[in-house]
Design brief:
Chain A: Keywords: Cell membrane, Membrane, Transmembrane, Transmembrane helix, Transport. The structure holds four protein chains of four kinds. Chain B is mostly helical. Chain B contains 13 helices and no strands. Chain C has three domains: 1-93 and 176-258, P-loop containing nucleotide triphosphate hydrolases (Rossmann fold, 3-Layer(aba) Sandwich), CATH 3.40.50.300; 99-174, no CATH class; 283-366 and 446-518, P-loop containing nucleotide triphosphate hydrolases (Rossmann fold). In chain C, the strands form four sheets. Chain C has a six-stranded mixed beta sheet with strand order 6-7-8-3-9-10, with helices on both faces. Chain C has a six-stranded mixed beta sheet with strand order 16-17-18-13-19-20, with helices on both faces.
Amino acid sequence: MTASVTEPLTPVPVGPVPGDPGPVRANRLRHALLHGRGRVGVVLVGLVLLLGVLGPLLAPYGPTEQIQGANLVGPGAGHWLGTDELNRDILSRTLYGIRVDLVVVFAAVPVGAALGVLLGLVTSWWPVTDVIAQRAFDLLLAFPALILGILITAFLGPGVFTVAVVIVAIELPVFGRLVRTSVRTVREMPFVEASQVVGATPWWVLRKHVLPNSLEPLTVQLAVSMSVAVFVEGAMSFLGLGVRPPHPSLGSLIKDGVRLLHEAPFFAAGPLTIVVALVLGLLLISQSLAEARRA
Amino acid sequence: MTRYLLSRLGSALLVTALASVGIFALIRLVPGDPVSVLAGPDATAESRAAIRAELGLDRPFWSQYVHWIGDLARLDLGPSYKLGGDVGSLISDGALNTVVLTLFALVLAAAGAIVASTAAVVWDKRWLNSLLSAVNTAAVAVPTFATALVLVLVFAVRFPVLPAGGTPPAGFFSQPDIALQYLILPGLALALPAWAALTRFLTESLRTELRQPYVTTARALGIPRRRIVLTQALRNALPATVTVLGLQLGSLLGGAILVEAVFAWPGLGRLVEQGISSRDYPVVQVLLLLSVVVFVLTQLVGDLIHAWLDPRVRLNGVS
Amino acid sequence: MPDSPLSPPVLTIEHLAISFAQPRPAVEDVSVTLRQGEILALVGESGSGKSMTARAVLGLLPPGAKATGSIRYDGRELLGLSEAGLNEVRGARIAMVFQEPQTALNPVRTIGWQLREALRAHGLRSRKAATERAIELLRAVEIPEPEQRLGSYPHQLSGGQKQRVVLALALANEPEVLLADEPTTALDVTVQAEILRLLDRIRERTGTAIVLITHNMGVVAEIADRVVVLQAGNVVEEGETRALFARPREPYTRTLLASVLRLPAPGSAVPIAAPADEATPAVEFRNVHVRYGSSRRGRAFPALNDVSLRVAPGEVVGLVGESGSGKTTLGRLAAGLVPLAGGQVLLHGADVLAAPRSERRDLRRGLAFVHQDPEASLDPRLSVGASIREPLDIHRVGTPAERDARVAELLEAVQLPPSYAERRPRELSGGQRQRIALARALALDPTLLVADEPTSALDVSVQARVLELFRELQERLGFACLFISHDLAVVHKVADRVAVLRAGQLVETGPVATVFAQPAEDYTRRLLDAVPVPDPTRRRGRRVRELAS
Amino acid sequence: SSAVDELKSSSGKRQEGGILRVGALQDIVPARIFTNSSDAINVLIGSVYDSLIDYPRDSLDPKPSLATSWKLSDDGTQLHLQLRDDVTFHSGRPFTSKDVEFSIKTWADPTWTVQLQRTAAAVTGFDTTDPHAITLTFAHPLSNIFDLLDMLPIIDKDTIGQLREGKAFVGTGPFKFASWSPGSKISFTRNDDYWRGKPALDGIDVSVIPDPQAQVAQLRAHQLDLILGASYRDFQSLGKDKQFQVNQWNGAEGQVYVGTNVTNPALSDVRVRQAIAYALDRKRVVDEVLRGAGVPISTPWPSYSPAYDEKANATYDYDLTKAKKLVDEAKADGVKIPKLPLTYPAENPIYGAIAQIAQADLAKVGIEVELDPQEQAQVIQQLIGAKFPALWILSHGYANWTPSTLAVSAYPFNADHNASLYSDPTYKAAAEKVWEAKPGAVDPADYAALNQALLKGSFLLEIAITLPQDASSTTVHDLGQTKRGEPILYDTYLTK
Ligand SMILES: Nc1ncnc2c1ncn2[C@@H]1O[C@H](COP(=O)(O)OP(=O)(O)OP(=O)(O)O)[C@@H](O)[C@H]1O
Ligand SMILES: Nc1ncnc2c1ncn2[C@@H]1O[C@H](COP(=O)(O)OP(=O)(O)OP(=O)(O)O)[C@@H](O)[C@H]1O
Ligand SMILES: [Mg+2]
Ligand SMILES: [Mg+2]
């Protein structure tokens, strides 16, 4: 220990300095989620989440239960949302179907995001790996989501797992690029230089500075990607690449409903409402987070 | 500027070249055999072998690839396994349909976005902003296929004022007024999410621009707000918007698959789907490569426009 | 002459108060009268309400601000005037110039376009006439070859030229009042001197009354007729420049004046230079070259050219020079942050780049870096304690408990209570943040500190305190220091020796007192001459005018 | 002008000429032009080509077409046909007996993968000395020779190369092929020199619209006059609309079935297969999925078929108790029934619905099924390679023809090698027996034996006959269809 520290200098009184910004709200993002638009979003997503989690308790029938004689019954006391072509209760199917979207939204997207972040983080520091990774991301991004969906389904066959893989494949480059932009900006920041000067390794900088400072844009993107995932599930199911029957998903329910729009316009209403609520909620969340970041 | 362009061009070519190998290999890895699809369930083993030889599928992988690239270089896309005809002419019809639809949607989205966001920023009225943000969110939150179907049901079936689908019988150019009517519904369904994204981005950029010091300078000179938005802020916000527009093109192409399905619009989306499901390698290869080329080109053109719009890049090659 | 107290008032601000939705009002009670043809300086520390007062005049307050009181121009009440009404006044009667010339101009429009647009806003529609007037204006602000410049974009001009264009814009419609909000803060001293002279000439030629907002007392002493001192939104003192400098009444004014660093008068006695230290230098640059951009693509820009410099142990070497002269580059080179194109960098006699990678880290361990911007140099996500601890963590010095103890010691060393370790950077003031940055730099007991303009983002009074602290620590700990600054007075205060850079080349080096008192090079002399002297009695412009009359 | 108003019209008066706008689900595939595998191909073959004889849709009694009369030798190995002498191809070349020989030989060529290839290949001798008569010699009596002559289009040998590339389709039929834009449109124009007389329509435009719903929407919006592919439910609702008529073509039936891989350990016990057959609620499939456009069956045959046997057809009427009993017995004998995959093409919603009903039905008798929707391409590959792991759902045709056509031509029934990997000498013998007989002279007892063999093996479990439907605007009159499902548009006319 140096002499200077053992004999401390006389502390000067420190009061508020003119122009002192004063304490700022500890967590802008959390605040954004609990007020205004953000709160509406959280409530909407929370509601859908709740319905999905409690689905089995709320559903009057099983998701694949075929009720004798109840062929395409309209909404009424027995079946709030009516029944489908195969005599199944649409309300029950919708409640169970939410769960597929929840898996896709809250498992596949985070996995894709995590992989993308990890890849982007590790590769973007060194020019060579950066070029390789970025070209690979470009390549993945070059295919529209649905084409990627069709291609991957050709390998894996339809199913939730396929949808999840497609979503991971879609999100990976998105997050990879986003992180790369972050790395590029953050590594130029004086505080990164400061830690490099004292000997921080790239890995240290990435872990301690870049990643924490990229979290905000990543959370905003996460919410956006989650809403995209709901679409991808819907679109893939619409093209018959989604969940395997007889299990329902919101997308497959909408697809079935849309096929019967003439005869049973009520069919698609329920699942569509949920999809819109979920996407809307996620969008509102992402908007409020983005706004909080800018403020 | 030229050097900047050349380097961009180089990386574009690299991506395309990598993509060609990737696609060629990938499509062959997909389970399912074009020959059995083509021959049908009742074909004998000999007939399948004959077909395989005829398609050149008995040659080794690299030789097939080299042949393909060689043919591509001579602009010969080869014959479709399934449809027999030349892939080039097969794709050109579909491509025209898709390009017209996508461009129409792109123009619709871009024009709509510029009008909506400048209106929102110039007037800056509370009700207008709320209305826009509501419409905007709705446009993003309702899936494209749902919008498309509702549009058909309302405007073609319930109140038949516009065609329910299909391409204009006389083509796009001989009767533009008729063609336009055929384009409106699918174009609208396709454009809506892109419009919403663009509007949101542009409004936000304009707001950011309005916070820039140069705007304060202009205001301090007594230039009216409306004029500042239209002649200065918009001009500054455009380069970034062009980039976003380029990204939107990708999602428009993706959305086109859905919209084409709903509106019986014989475009590339259907070709891709059918091509893959019938394992029609030549068609799929070319289509996938095309999608990469379009993506790469859009980025390139986006960069070009960006550079052209931004004198700092145009004159100094920095961005 | 503006000195006459009889010239009529053009702008009267009475009991102006501006508040945001926060406890303390931005402006509490400000009354100022501006008279025809005078230059009125508005001074005060950061956040004292100078800018808000000026913006209120043109109705350019940020959204959410509420202003009360009265602002009268030409018998008209400006406060609460409609946007259309304000637009008639803005630019035409009262014009405003802002601090940042880099961003005050629209980057995608030519300056000709922007000038024409300003003229068009007040009725000059003819393109030809507007172009002619634009050329005239550019000539008036002394831009060479104005015809060619019309087609230039802002990025093609130098900082000083940009500020001149901003001035031209403000003068386009011959306003009676010019509000200049720190118009020279971002500029080099030499450029600043030219702009100030230009302002003075414009006032003389057109009789425009100017409100000059600045925190630089040198600038005030140089050209202001009267001074209004603001503190926390209130006018604390007001008076004729010379009188106020000579006899400040208020303690606040006195502190303000006391914080101002001064250069010795030119030609003053030269102290005997200390003999050169023979010990191994803490850092030595041997004929170093640095190029930016890839040389392969033929765009290499030589930022440093054949520079040789030594910093002896325990010695503070000030590095001065105009913007872009390569000061930062040299500092970063020592820290190993820029690649070397030629020459050698020796840390304590060891060639860093020649050393194996593993040793390089240890060689650099004795080196620390303090950056200009205290805000950007601390990770906003880490508590300041964590930031100070980081070098210890990286080198795994001691146990975690020892590290925490060391953090407390370091905080004390920079005169901050240990409880501050828990705070986030944004919960501190600028000066406090710079102390934290200093504490972090000292964490590993460096033998060499590179400080890149460590106080240029701070207020004068805060700057004085931080410099004091720096000097004290340096004497106590005895580290060598490469102190980079564009402020010659600051260098004069802290440095033992000074090195003058110009366009990547070392033009002069020597003991501070010698170089500043008797510069050997013309360039150094020009730099010194351009520094505004915070003493109205030594006012150059005035002197010139007095001699001429 | 409005694109929509142009399409609306209704005065009820017969229109001179006019273009019939047809919506088809699938495009033509030149390499598979003779396989009856897409509705656009059906329009093409039905309109551009003629055959030697025509079956009326609901019987197997040949009627003259390009052949005016015919005579079969007593042993059934020679057929002499008298041909029309006033027929020319669209190219202007007169039609002769050589063209008949060429057409039959083309069908016998395996690269065209025609279903009746074996039958065509069994025609071994051609006497074409008379250009307007031909004598065919067979390797053995062919009970289904007239099936071949009804299905076989007479093609032009000069343009076969262009046919393969999809550039030209030259026949003798009522309409000439005009153009094809792959993936979107095929056009035909009237053949003014048609030997039966000038057709009423000026031409036909076939739009390829793979989405059934889009077809319906375009029909409703009067952008199409006739749609060939729509869901059963859409047909049902169009039928209730006065602006449209729905045609049901009895005689051109298909059959949906559940196939079983008999080498699967669980399915190798016939009792399990029979249990599955009993457990299928066929009536529900017909009512709820086919919306009444079908008939529940246990044997493939429609009621007019010579092999039809009412009693045999009721063998596997829905009976859960019997099914349960069979499963229990099998399980008692140590048969393990794990979860069985049920494969079906994902593209077609009908298969999906049937599969889900079957899954629910089988669950009731203790057979767990996992649905395995796959792409058509993969399903076909598994069908050909006999690679289905357990169960699958598909449909077959040919039961509406001479029964031997099914037994020797339809892939799932092929006694030599079928997708079920079922081989049984009794079945093989029964199938050969009904084939190698003189047309119309098959012993009913042989058919009964064939039915018995099929039911005993229970390797292919029929669900229902599906009746093809199409829908048209009421301005379209006199539509027809062949047994093969080809629209006959020769007589068709439009009203304003
Ligand atoms: N947009 C705003 N919202 C809230 N408070 C603001 C805003 N702008 C300025 N303030 C507050 O108003 C007060 C006066 O600010 P002003 O910009 O006039 O200071 P200044 O004297 O010009 O300082 P500086 O020398 O730093 O430019 C400060 O306390 C500042 O925090
Ligand atoms: N990363 C870079 N790439 C290219 N050129 C650069 C880069 N950094 C600095 N330069 C150029 O190198 C020259 C020296 O820059 P440097 O930052 O060392 O100047 P400085 O003396 O610190 O100026 P200031 O007082 O403005 O901070 C300048 O002309 C600058 O434009
Ligand atoms: Mg200010
Ligand atoms: Mg610098």
